[in-house]
Amino acid sequence: MTDLARWVQGSDPEFNHGLAFYSSDGRFLAVYSSDGIHLYNADSLTQTRLIESPPAWRLTFSPDRKTLAAGLIDGSIKLWEIATGKELRTLNEQTVQSLAFSPDGRTLASSSFENTIKLWNVATGQELRILSGLDATVESLAFSPDGRTLASGSYNGTIKLWDVANGLETRILSGHNSLVESLAFSPDGRTLASGSDDDTIKLWDVATGQGPRTLSGHKGFVVSVAFSPDGTMLASGSYDDTIKLWNVTTGQELRVLGGDTTAFVVNDVAFSPDGHTLVSAWDDGTICIWGVPPFSSFVVRPTSTATPELTQTPFPSLQVGKSITLTSLKMINATNGWGLEIAGHIVRSTDGGQSWSDVTPSNRPGDAFGSFFLDAQSAWVYDSNNPSRGLVHTANGGETWTMLTQSMPVVIGGMPVANGGLKFVNEKDGWAEAYNVGAGHGEVSLFGTHDGGATWEQIPLSDLPNTTIISFQPGDLSVCSICGDRFYYDPTRMVVFNGDLASDSSGSVRLSVSFDQEKTWKRQILPMPSSQYHDGLVAPQEPVFLDQQDGYLPFNIFKSKPDQSQEYCVLAIYATHDGGLTWIPNATVLENVNLNTIMDFVSLQDIFAVCGNDLCVTHDGAHTWQLLHSNLDFDNVTNIEFAGPSIGWAIATDGRSYSLWKTIDRGVSWTELHPAFIP
User: Are the C-beta atoms of 497 and 553 separated by less than 8 Å?
Assistant: First the structure.
């Protein structure tokens, strides 16, 4: 870490509480001090505005960068317009303890000493809901990235997860033995980090509540935690005057920062959205900006303003002949494939995955890569956290990369194109999908390119006929995100698949398809694969079209018992041979699967799916399945890739390290590869 800038904003001797927070686009840095809230240009550290404010406990930007909220010591909440500094409204809360904006910026959650959590409409200031059932004061709040879940941390050491749509408590996480000061969801929403007055940090599996893993090392209350944008690191600030950086996968302590200020408490830590910097705020008003390796280096100019200059440097070089660790891969055929190395390198193999060359673009647009691999030669790469950094493309297997002139599109509200939301059908024609989510509401924005990604235009969408879910922005499509709805697009068709996750079972599979750019829609209601699942909830997955006419729709059907344990969860697959106009139910289902089953559709006949600890395979289009008991525990597999019915690869992790495996006998047996770097 590099100490880029350090300055003292001043403190109130009767109220020492320094705060610092980045805006969602990384352009602004808000800092609280005794004379108000200072807004800075995050690149130059020049002040752009001072908002006069009484003493504040909490400070946060709305995700759309339009509003700044502060919880004041007098118990109220104030909202300001960032562009003008104008005070918008005051919300009459009682002794504010914590604040959190929903990902879409439309809802603000607050907690108070009155043992309540309130949800507010940001636009109107109206109180939407009070969450009940609290048995202690809530000190910390955090929304999940999809906006469906709100986490609250209490004085009694418990953490509760709430369904935002209905205000019901869904899970209690117990493990801390003192007040939970801080909460943060990982960028993928799978992990919740909590910092406590018991001097520990715990990492929780959000889906199961299992764990937690405990990170120990602080010698004081842990009052702030923050994930890096790529989810690989966690920063924590403590009463012991230090900041610690942790490897999220291994739990290893990476670095200790601070320990040399005159204060005793690190009130806030926050990563910039691009992951290049970390800001920290101490009780005495000291603010520090730190450069985060290995992605960037900064030069501190010897001026009174300590303005940092950003210069991008290459990743640390891979060592020839040394083993490398892959976290994901995309195999094109039996010999050629692309992969992402754990430190961030993009690598390429031409020998079936045994050896890999580094093809990371030197003019890379960023460090949190989104990508699309068309074939063995052509690929596109962008920064999935900051798409305005642009898009690079290679047509020769990564030997050279071209920076495309126009940035990737960004949705109104600041949501970037999703990682995995970029697709091309050839070198010129492609599309990008962005998905903005809020409290139960999802909004799809679609963009197309016909010059390989240099320029983009929005593809206009409209809401389905006879729907009660209305989009907020013209040209978007609204779906029910909390229901598990899925949207699919290619130049031939658009399809919306409906889920049951926020309602009772519908007893059917429901979808709407359009073949004329939404001028007309055809509604379909398909029967369950068997009557025994009539009371199950449907959770559709991403459909797969293998050509213009043939495709598959996989979906899970599950049911929970009254105690919320699972009664059953199966995977069903329907087929289409007319481009999605009609779908053929298949009576055969896979049991012993999880929601969002990991699958690979190799051909019309050959499909592989993870079934608990084993691999399931069909070679007749899902009419019959074979359960393969092999030497690889598929419960730990995160990625499977087959180049045909016989040859395949898998990436497995135990939560601390990753391993690469290969099969040449249709998944019956697996050999661990030890991929090595070659120049």
Answer: yes
Cα torsion 304, 307, 309, 315: sign: positive
Residues 6+ apart with CB under 8 A from 364: 312, 381, 392, 401
- Two tokens at 474? 């013209």
Residues of the chain with pLDDT under 50: 1-18, 261-262, 294-314, 412-415, 439
Cβ-contact 308, 7 below 8 angstroms:
no
* Predicted local confidence at residue 294, as pLDDT: 40
Q: Which residues pair with 20 in a beta bridge?
A: 31
Pairing status of strand 589-590 against strand 566-576: antiparallel
Query: What pLDDT is recorded for position 306?
Result: 33
Euclidean distance between CA atoms 378 and 335, whole angstroms: 15
Main-chain phi, psi angles of 634, to 5 degrees? -75, -5
**pLDDT score of 12:** 40
Write the CB contacts of 531 (distance below 8 Å, at least 6 apart in sequence): none
Nearest one of 91, 46, 49 to 70, comparing CA atoms: 91
On the question of a cis peptide bond just before residue 212, with omega within 30 degrees of 0, the verdict is yes
CATH of domain 2-312: 2.130.10.10
Determine contact, residues 409/458, Cβ cutoff 8 Å: yes
- The per-residue DSSP string of 471-514 comes to -SSTT-EEEETTTT-EEEEETTEEEEEE--TTSS--SEEEEEEE
Residues 6+ apart with CB under 8 A from 300: 2, 3, 4, 5, 306, 307, 308
**pTM score of the predicted model:** 0.56
Residue of 658, 560, 556 lying closest to 610 (CA atoms): 556
Domain ranges for the chain, please list them. 2-312
Angle of CA points 590, 591, 592, to nearest 5°: 130
Instruction: Count Cβ atoms within 10 A of the Cβ of residue 671 and give its class: 0-12 exposed, 13-18 middle, 19 or more buried.
Output: exposed
Please state the length of the chain. Answer: 679
CA 295 to chain centre: 20
Please give the full DSSP string across 502-533, using - where no structure is assigned: TSS--SEEEEEEESSTTSS-EEEEEE-SSGGG
Chain Cα centroid distance, residue 289: 24
Dist. CA 371–CA 264, nearest whole Å: 44
159 beta partners: 153, 173
Q: What is the DSSP letter of 32?
A: E
| Residue found by looking up tokens 């840095």 in the block | 29
The pairing of strands 355-358 and 676-677 is parallel
Distance CA 40, CA 59 (A): 14
Q: Which two tokens stand for residue 210?
A: 């299992």
CA atoms within 13 A on the CB side of 377: 4
